[in-house]
């Protein structure tokens, strides 16, 4: 059996190149900076991987690419994809109630099966599955009704398309047949123009760019074309370096703050993007909320993924996680949306964020503190401390402040047992002005 981890085997060299390039070519918004406003404040998005792979409950597209199943057997799943209980309004309500502000649906994964009635190919759930109808439009409408921004995932590579032959991908790569590859690129343009004109998404989440260079995908032309449909369109970073508006770290929570101004961590709830009934390795709601808070602390978004079943029902575990997110995001609304990245690590043993004017420091505790919470190196005076979503006022005291030294004292906050949230407790610390931190070396007598 040929097992090839594609990210290792095909794109390691290219990946390194991309990494190097992306460090010298930061991802930035080339159009109006205002278009990123909603994205910056959204904080939570929901990713939906829905496709025929949910029928057997196997890896989306990769399962045939890696020869875990033959291509023909993979495609037999078409006959089991019914969408018979698809309730896009229910999906949109659940997404909204989780506190998410945008959602991204896989309109077409690497397997090439379109979830809408594409005229560019016959390979769609409309023409080839018992579902027999457009699945993209109804969700986009339902999201719009709920005030949720509409995102479409689209794989630029297509392992089913006759002009993108997956069997020759290793050696042929259309290097010697640009005419044929151009036919494929035209097909991508056609599908994307269909999606833009039918559904006018707020965001495109591209994927699969690693098999070709941006010039081969015609990324610049594609982006320009899509912007003619919506000048405020946001594009993720997977059309090649320099074309995206934001960065997309995947699965691993960043340890240090990503360098790009806008970023989003995409993450599965268990270990699978699509529905896999055999994958019970769900992170708990509390664990996922901690990941979410890590993103907030570093000024990014979380795009949390679930995979619906072939009939369109949402797995119970996913529904439960979204409901638990809703409980926490509703209670802590003021400490989520419109916050910005918090203060550097080292001042508090906890993630933090700041209000837009930087006068409120939010502190996120996923543990019960021992006696009191300590804040080091905070020059500001604390005006008031309260427990977000609970209101209890807490006492703060400063200890060890020498009147003749500029080194701030230790600030301690006492937290009674009865104010803790079952997942993450949030404290709001109102300062006497924008946060002002002591970042020097800490000598008692400082030379001028
Ligand atoms: C990777 C995977 C793909 C998945 C995507 C989501 O690119 O190849 O299957 O859809 O991540 O971020």
UniProtKB/TrEMBL annotation:
One of its GO terms (molecular function) is alpha-L-fucosidase activity. It is an enzyme of class 3 (hydrolase). Belongs to the glycosyl hydrolase 29 family. Coiled coil: none annotated. The record marks 266 as: May be important for catalysis. GO terms for cellular component: lysosome. One of its GO terms (biological process) is glycoside catabolic process. InterPro entries: FUC_metazoa-typ, GH, Glyco_hydro_29, Glyco_hydro_29_N. It holds the Pfam family Alpha_L_fucos. It comes from Algoriphagus aquimarinus. Residues 1-29 form the signal peptide. Alpha-L-fucosidase is responsible for hydrolyzing the alpha-1,6-linked fucose joined to the reducing-end N-acetylglucosamine of the carbohydrate moieties of glycoproteins. The keyword Hydrolase applies. This is alpha-L-fucosidase. It comes from the Bacteria. Residues 30-332 form the Glycoside hydrolase family 29 N-terminal domain. The keyword Hydrolase applies. Keywords: Glycosidase, Hydrolase, Signal. SUPFAM superfamilies: (Trans)glycosidases. Its EC number is 3.2.1.51.
């Amino acid at each position: 059996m040929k097992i090839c981890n594609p990210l290792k085997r095909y794109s390691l060299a290219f990946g390194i190149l991309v990494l190097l390039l992306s460090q010298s070519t930061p991802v930035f918004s080339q159009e109006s900076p205002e278009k990123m406003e909603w994205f910056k404040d959204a904080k939570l998005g929901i990713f939906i991987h829905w496709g025929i792979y949910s029928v057997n409950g196997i890896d989306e597209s990769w399962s045939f690419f890696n020869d875990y199943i033959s291509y023909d057997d993979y495609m037999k799943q078409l006959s089991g994809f019914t969408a018979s209980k698809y309730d896009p309004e229910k999906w949109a309500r659940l997404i909204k109630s989780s506190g998410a502000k945008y959602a991204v649906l896989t309109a077409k994964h690497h397997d090439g099966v379109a979830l809408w009635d594409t005229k560019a190919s016959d390979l769609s759930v409309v023409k080839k599955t018992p579902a027999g109808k457009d699945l993209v439009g109804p969700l986009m409408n339902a999201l719009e009704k709920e005030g949720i921004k509409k995102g479409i995932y689209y794989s630029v590579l297509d392992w089913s398309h006759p002009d993108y032959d997956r069997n020759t991908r290793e050696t042929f790569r259309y290097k010697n047949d640009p005419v044929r590859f151009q036919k494929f690129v035209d097909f991508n343009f056609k599908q994307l123009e269909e999606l833009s004109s039918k559904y006018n998404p707020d965001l495109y989440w591209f994927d699969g760019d690693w098999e070709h260079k941006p010039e081969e995908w015609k990324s610049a032309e594609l982006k320009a074309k899509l912007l003619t449909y919506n000048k405020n369109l946001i594009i993720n970073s997977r059309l090649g370096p320099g074309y995206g508006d934001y960065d997309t770290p995947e699965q691993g929570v960043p340890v240090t703050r990503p360098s790009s101004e806008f970023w989003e961590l995409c993450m599965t709830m268990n270990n699978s993007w699509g529905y896999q009934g055999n994958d019970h390795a769900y992170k708990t709601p509390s664990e996922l909320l901690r990941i979410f808070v890590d993103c907030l602390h570093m000024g990014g978004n979380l795009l949390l993924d679930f995979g619906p079943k072939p009939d369109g029902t949402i797995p119970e575990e996913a529904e439960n996680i979204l409901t638990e997110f809703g409980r926490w995001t509703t209670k802590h609304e003021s400490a989520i949306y419109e916050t910005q990245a918090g203060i550097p690590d080292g001042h508090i043993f906890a993630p933090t964020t700041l209000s837009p004017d930087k006068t409120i420091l939010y502190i996120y505790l996923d543990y019960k503190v021992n006696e009191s919470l300590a804040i080091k190196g905070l020059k500001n005076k604390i005006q008031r401390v309260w427990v977000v979503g609970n209101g209890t006022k807490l006492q703060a005291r400063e200890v060890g402040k020498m009147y003749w030294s500029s080194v701030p004292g230790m600030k301690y906050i006492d937290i009674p047992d009865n104010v803790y949230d079952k997942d993450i407790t949030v404290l709001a610390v109102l300062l006497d002005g924008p946060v002002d931190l002591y970042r020097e070396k800490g000598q008692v007598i400082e030379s001028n």
